[in-house]
Specification:
Elements lengths: L5 H11 L5 E3 L23 E4 L12 E4 L1 H9 L14 H16 L2 H16 L8 E5 L5 E5 L15 H10 L6 E4 L8 E5 L7 H20 L1
Helix pairs in contact: 4-6, 5-6
């Protein structure tokens, strides 16, 4: 997630120069961060929002492009039509899955649950903050990142060849927990972190399970 002020500044630049602001919310949207869309944390209103993943919760492949009234008005002033399509557009099974997921999210108020569940997961992970190779644990709602560093004081990253994030993933898998490893978050090459994005229905005992698995993985990887 960007620091406070970043999204607002990008929006200002786009507006001043007549550039469409497009928000890629494929991973962050549909309530993952505690709001329907992550940009809402900063009061930003994009011209176009891209959604996927959570819009059908993996039950069927589905993505969508949401556009603002300003974009619609531009088409209305022009041809009046958006001439675009592909073979599986408006696929009946996928859109039915999407509707069912959206109905479930609304009827069970799962968006409201995300922040509370995220706080419980953060609390379960908090003992890791003191580990000398954990640089930070951050993120809104149920989209958390755990950063690993060679030096906690300077935040010096590990070398790419050490493959720390992948080693953490493998160790967590042995504990029956899946995490998402990523490298290059510092300079495009170095910088290890893992992403935690559990389901909105996660229970407190499952938060504890994730924390135990990650603590065990960290202890094993950095003991070698």
């Amino acid at each position: 997630m960007p620091p406070d002020g970043y999204a607002q500044r990008i929006a200002e630049i786009c507006l001043r120069n007549g550039i469409l602001l497009i928000a890629d919310e494929v991973m962050t949207g549909m309530g993952r961060t505690g709001k329907p869309f992550a940009v809402q944390h900063w009061g930003v209103e994009p011209d176009i929002i891209l959604v996927g993943k959570g819009v059908a919760s993996g039950y069927a492949p589905l993505g969508a492009v949401l556009v603002s009234a300003r974009v619609v008005a531009a088409f209305e002033r022009g041809s009046g039509a958006f001439m675009h399509g592909f073979t599986y557009q408006a696929h009946a099974v996928s859109t039915a899955a999407g509707n069912a997921v959206l109905d479930y999210l609304e009827s069970h108020k799962l968006f409201d649950r995300v922040n509370t569940a995220g706080q419980k997961l953060c609390a379960a992970l908090s003992p890791l903050q003191s580990h000398p190779n954990v640089g930070d644990i951050r993120g809104p709602g149920l989209l958390l990142g755990v950063e690993f560093v060679k030096d906690k004081a300077t935040h010096e990253p590990f070398q790419k060849e050490q493959d720390i994030a992948e080693k953490i993933r493998e160790a967590c898998l042995e504990e029956n927990v899946l995490v998402y490893p990523t490298q290059g978050c510092v300079d495009g090459v170095r910088g290890d972190h893992i992403l935690l994005a559990p389901p909105f229905t996660i229970l407190p005992e499952e938060c504890a399970l994730i924390a135990r698995a990650l603590q065990s993985a960290v202890a094993r990887v950095f003991a070698s």
